[in-house]
Amino acid sequence: MTIWQDLLDKAQSVQSRRIGELFEKDNRAGGFSRETGPFLFDFSKTNIDAETLDLLVKLAEVKDVAARAEAMFTGEKINDTEGRAVLHTALRNLDTDVFVDGENVMPEVRATYARMEAFARDVREGKFTGQGGKISDVVNIGIGGSDLGPAMATLALAPYHDGPRCHFVSNVDGAHIHDTLAGLNPETTLVIVASKTFTTIETMTNAETAKRWMAEKVSDPAQQFAALSTSAEKTAAFGIDQARVFGFADWVGGRYSMWGPIGLSLMIAIGSEGFAGFLKGAATMDAHFRDAEFKDNLPVLLALVGIWHNQFCDYATRAVLPYDQRLARLPAYLQQLEMESNGKRVSMDGKDLPYNSGPVVWGEPGTNGQHAFYQLIHQGTRVIPCEFMVAAEGHEPDLAHQHTLLVANCLAQSEALMRGRSLAEATEIMRKKGFEGDELDRQARHRVFPGSRPSTTLLYPKLTPEVFGGIVALYEHRVFVEGVILGINSFDQWGVELGKELALALAPVLKGEDAGEGKDGSTRQLVARVQSLRG
């Protein structure tokens, strides 16, 4: 493709250009920032110039991003390896009808949402008492999207909690559920089991453990369970009344599911009004993504910056750096969202990709990361694009001075990454400290920062439910756009299947019930050592 080659050539031609040079031109910051609703997205601290941006926008156009987006919003089966529509957006757009195979899916979505609201209200108000009085704690048992989404969101919106305490269990490691349940009272705990098929091995193993724990104190443990599942047969076999089972269609992917029943724990924590704000923020971002021109479209621009850095500049990783402690789980959530969606090696037609697919996504909240891995970002040999996000205002007015320091650190880090420190500057600093000669040069070189390291910043007023919903939807659509440009299916995840299959086969080998014939020498050795250590 000519545009693809033009962008490769452009990346090569600007490789030695310093980002700071671009600010010598008129209104660099204003020209490479965009606003929508409460958000300001600043991508001026990248090496993208006007010509590059035009090429990237054209790339999105020739890749039919707009048509693919419209196909998604209108219920076409864009997940073609599984023959499914991709309609998580319908879960937060309760006013517009959406059709799949000629059937309006919204009546069922609205009915399920109303049932969620009623149940959450009963739990919050003490009308649902379980068998020991008002529910004080909720334990959500899930894994992947059934855990990462609601766990991340519940932490993010902690200032809005006025319901029961929420806890999340995902790992099949017994330590996770043991430590979570240790401080809880079975009589006042509601357990929510989140598994679409009610067969997910990690989730169901933890659910059975929770049921046994519940049975130690209550006569009918299943009466204090709810299920987020489509399997009426399996939830009934577990003992859960159908009134406490909340299902969702196969067009809701796991990592996109917290807008519906998977978000029940969040709704219980913050109430239906807060949850409605969360949905509204996402729906507003949906409308912006659907309607705005590419050059002003935040999800498209965020995706194009990512494509520029990964596919054309060959930066293999991306650091997500929220300067908000309550967004501590956001990097992990985005790891799954991006790496499970776009970590593919073949295109939609099954052919090998001729370029790299998605990047490695990682990060931590600021300012903790500054005392951990920022050393490598600033002075390491690899360039790591950074994505900062920060609120202008915190939720603690009596600690406003600390939030000011937090924001100052965020803005300073992006400035430092771009500016760097030259050898001449470092030499002058060390000369003033009394160094001279060869030792002056040696000490100065340790204090050189290469600079010209790219970053973006997402700024918003305060982390409210509406703002938070907009952030999550922004990144969902960003991943979608990147997938369309790369020509891959962002909505399947076959890469998780092989390990599951092999784990199921290995369990009886570890128990000594199967000889494990056909296993490689390393696996046999490790199995034997585990068995010997267990005695």
Descriptive overview:
This protein is an alpha/beta fold and 535 residues long. Helix content is 48%, strand content 10%. The protein has 20 helices and 13 strands. It has helices at 2-13, 19-22, 28-31, 50-62, 65-73, 106-125, 145-156, 174-181, 201-215, 232-238, 264-291, 298-312, 330-342, 374-379, 400-419, 423-432, 437-445, 465-486, 497-510, 521-534; strands at 33-36, 39-42, 99-100, 103-104, 137-141, 165-169, 189-194, 225-228, 245-246, 317-323, 360-362, 386-391, 455-460. Strands 1-2-13-12-10-11 form a six-stranded mixed β-sheet, with helices on both faces. A five-stranded parallel β-sheet has the order 6-5-7-8-9, with helices on both faces. β7 (189-194), α9 and β8 form a beta-alpha-beta unit. α7 runs antiparallel to α13 (330-342) and α11 (264-291) crosses α18. The longest helix is centred in the middle third of the chain and has 28 residues, at 264-291. It is globular. The N and C termini lie far apart (61 Å). The active site is at 340 (proton donor), 371, 500. It is found in: Cytoplasm. This is Glucose-6-phosphate isomerase. InterPro entries: G6P_Isomerase, G6P_Isomerase_C, Phosphoglucose_isomerase_CS, SIS_dom_sf, SIS_PGI_1, SIS_PGI_2. It catalyses: alpha-D-glucose 6-phosphate = beta-D-fructose 6-phosphate.
- Total strand segments: 13
Report the C-alpha radius of gyration, rounded.
25 Å
The side-by-side strand order for the widest beta sheet comes to 1-2-13-12-10-11
Most strands sheet: 6 strands, mixed
Helical fraction equals 40-55%
The percentage of residues in β strands lies in 5-15%
Cα distance spanning the termini: 61 Å
Q: Can you give the mean pLDDT?
A: 95
Shape: globular
Query: Which structural class best describes the helix and strand composition?
Result: alpha/beta
Q: Uncertain regions: pLDDT < 50 for 5+ in a row?
A: none
| Contiguous helical run count | 20
